[in-house]
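Schema walkthrough. Field components (list of strings):
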Amino acid sequence: MSPRVVDRDQRKREIALAALELFAQNGFEATSISEIAQAAGISKGSIYLYFNSKEDLIFHAVAMWVDQMMEQTGSEAPSDLPPPQRLRSLVHAMVEIFVSDERSVRIAAAIFQLFVTNPRMLEHRDLARELFQDARKAIIDILLDGVAQGIFRPGTAQEAEGIAINLLAYLDGIGLHYYMSRSYFDLMDQVDLYLDHLLRNLTDLSRRPGAQI
Amino acid sequence: MSPRVVDRDQRKREIALAALELFAQNGFEATSISEIAQAAGISKGSIYLYFNSKEDLIFHAVAMWVDQMMEQTGSEAPSDLPPPQRLRSLVHAMVEIFVSDERSVRIAAAIFQLFVTNPRMLEHRDLARELFQDARKAIIDILLDGVAQGIFRPGTAQEAEGIAINLLAYLDGIGLHYYMSRSYFDLMDQVDLYLDHLLRNLTDLSRRPGAQI
Amino acid sequence: MSPRVVDRDQRKREIALAALELFAQNGFEATSISEIAQAAGISKGSIYLYFNSKEDLIFHAVAMWVDQMMEQTGSEAPSDLPPPQRLRSLVHAMVEIFVSDERSVRIAAAIFQLFVTNPRMLEHRDLARELFQDARKAIIDILLDGVAQGIFRPGTAQEAEGIAINLLAYLDGIGLHYYMSRSYFDLMDQVDLYLDHLLRNLTDLSRRPGAQI
Amino acid sequence: MSPRVVDRDQRKREIALAALELFAQNGFEATSISEIAQAAGISKGSIYLYFNSKEDLIFHAVAMWVDQMMEQTGSEAPSDLPPPQRLRSLVHAMVEIFVSDERSVRIAAAIFQLFVTNPRMLEHRDLARELFQDARKAIIDILLDGVAQGIFRPGTAQEAEGIAINLLAYLDGIGLHYYMSRSYFDLMDQVDLYLDHLLRNLTDLSRRPGAQI
DNA sequence: CATGAATGAGACTTCATTCAT
DNA sequence: GATGAATGAAGTCTCATTCAT
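Field assembly_structure (string):
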C-alpha cells in the first residue's frame, strides 16, 4: 500500500536520536538544525521531509527519550528480592542512569524548561503524564507487593500512588541539585537517606495511617 | 558638574526585575535584550550601561531572585510554634510561592537548565550552592531545635543537613512535576505526604539511628 | 540529488571581488558586510555561507588581490630587452598600475594598516612575506641576468635581494606619498630618478663593492 | 578679552595626545571616543566641548603628531659633520624613531589610510604636504651644503628636491614593509644599502648629470 | 564648564525555513 | 526523495553623539 513506511519511521528515529544527543549536550534552543543534520548524516533540507518544524523534531525526540528511559529502568527490577530491597534496587538503577550519563539530567532539565515554559507544549500534557507512568507503576507494584507480603503496613496501599509520585519527583529534584552545584553532597548517600526514611515508615507496622503530625 | 542623578544600583535592579519577569515567561534564551529593554522602558543600548552582557544580566537577575525568595520565605517562619509545626509552616510557605506565582517554577526550571547546560555557569557554582544556603539553614535550625526540645530523636542532629538537602530537592522536583503536567495530582497533598513521612521518622523516639533497611 | 549547482570557489571569488572594490574605496573597517552583500547581489546571511567571518573575507580578498597583482605585473616583462631596460620596463608597469587604478594604492594602504595594526593578522605574516615574493624574484632575476651579461657589476649579485626589497618598499612609499597629497610632484619622474641612481650604481663597473661612504 | 584661551588649547592638546596614543595602538576606526575620554581623564561628553566630531579630533591629533615628528628629527642633525655623514646621521635618526617606537609606523599607516581613503581628508591636502616639508628641507640643506663644499657633484643641486622626496618615501615604504612582515630583513642594513647607493651617486664627481640609462 | 545617562543606528553573526534543481 | 544554496528576520553588542542637570 504505502511503500517503505518502515524506512521512513526508521529514518525519523535516526534523526531524533542524533538530535537527542545534541539536545543533551546543549539544550534545545542552543542546538541548531544544521548541527542535527550533520550529526544525522543528512542534509539540512531533508530534516524537513521528516519533521514539520524544529519544535516537531524536539517533541519527537523527547518522546523517544521517554520510551528509552522506560525500557532501561523497567528491565532493571529483579523480582526475586523482598520488596524493600527491590525498591532500593530500582531506585539505585534509576540514579545510576543519572550518575553514569550526565546527558539524562541535561535532557531532563531541558524537558522541564520546555514543558514549564513553552505554552505550545501544554497541548501535549498527556505526554508529560505518560512520561512517568511506567516508572510510577513499577514503584506501586513493589509497594503493593510488600503490603501483600505483610512487610509494608496496610495503609501503604492507599498511599502508594502518592509515594511513587513523591519518589520520582524527589529523584529528579536531587539529580538537578546535584548537577547544578556539582557534588557538594554525595548523591547516592542522599538517595539512601530518602529511602531509609521511606522504608522505615512503610515497615513500621504499629502505627495508624494518615495521622498528621 | 553633577549630571542627571540616577541611583545606579536601583536602575540595575529595575532592569533585572523587568528581565526576571520575561525570563519567567520565556526562559533565558528565548528572552531577547530588545524585549527586556522595552519592558524596562529603556533603550536597547542602555542595557549595556548597566550590564556587560546578556549573561551578566541573567546572572544578576538570578541572584536577585534568590535574594527575593530568601526574604519571602525567611520572614514567614513563626518561631513560637513547636518544631514540627514550624517545619510544616515553613515548607507550606515555600510551596505557597510555587502555587501563587507560577513564575517561580519557571525561573527555577530556567535556572536548572542554565546551570546544568551552560558550561560557563559552572564558574558560578558557588552561587548555585549559596542559592539554597539560607533555606537549608532555616530547615536545619528547626531540626536542631526539635532535638534540643526532645521532640525529634537525637539521631536527627547528624542527619540534619542531609534531610534539608533532600527536602529542598524534593520541593523543586515536585514543583516541576506539578507544573509540567498541570495538576493530575494535588500539590499540597503530596507535600503533606512527604512531611508526614519525614516527621513520623523524626518523632519516632524509639528507634536506633542509621539502621538501613 | 543534485541541487542548484554553483561553483563554490567561483562564488567566493565574486564576493571577494565585490568586497575588494569596497575595501579599496573605504578601507576594511569602514566597509560593512551589508554593503558587500549588496554589491555582490547577495543576501547578508549568504556571505557567511562562503566566509566564516569578516576577517576571513578580508583575508581572502587580500590574497586574491595579491594574486591579481602578480599576474598583472608578471606578464608585463618583455624578456628580449637588455637588463637595465627590462628593469625599467618592469617598474614602469608596476607604477602604471598605481597610476591607472587608484584602487591599488588604497588597498595597499588598507593592507598596511591591517597588518601593522591588527595583532591577529600577525599570524598571517607568511602571507605578508609572500605578498612581495614574486615581484622580488622578478627583480632579482633581472639583476642576476645583468651580472651574467657583464652589464651590472659583479657585486650586484650579493646585493640583489636587498636591492629588490628596497625597490619594492620605495614603490609603495612613493605611491602612498603621491596619493596622499595628490601630485605636488610627478610620480613617474620620481620613479625614474630612483631608477637612474640605481642603474648608475649597478653599471659602474669600476668601483669596489661594499665600501661604505 | 577671551579668558583662558591658553587653557583651552592646552586641554585640546592633552586630549589629542591621549588620542594619539590610542590611535597608534589600534588605528583610528578601532579607537572609540570612550577610550579616548578615559585615557584623557575626562568625560565622554566633554570631548565634544573641544572637538566637533571624532573626525575633527583625528585631524588635530594627526597635525599634532606631525609637529612632534618635526621637532624630534629636526633637532637631531649635528651640523659639524661632513655632508655625507650628516645625511646618514639624519636618516639614522629617523629610522631610529621607527625602530624604537612602533607607534610611529602604526600612526603612519593609519594616516596613509586616512588620507588615501577618506575623501573628506583631501580638503586638508595642504597638511599632507606640510607633513614632510621640514624633513624635506633638512635633507635638501645637507645636499646643497655638500654641493657647496664640492663633495657632492654639481648636478645634485637641481635633483635635490627629487632626491629628498624619494628618500622620505622610501623610508616610509621600508618601515611599513618591515613592520608588516616583522623582520625577514634587517631594517638598518636595508637603509644603509639605500644610502650607499645614493651617496655613491652623489659623490661620483666624474659623471654627467641627467643621463638616463 | 562638565558630566555621564541615554539613545538609536548600525555592526557582525546565526539560524529556521524555503525552493530550484 | 534529496540536496544545499539562499534568504531575511532576529540576536547580541558597540559607539558617536546629544542633553538634562
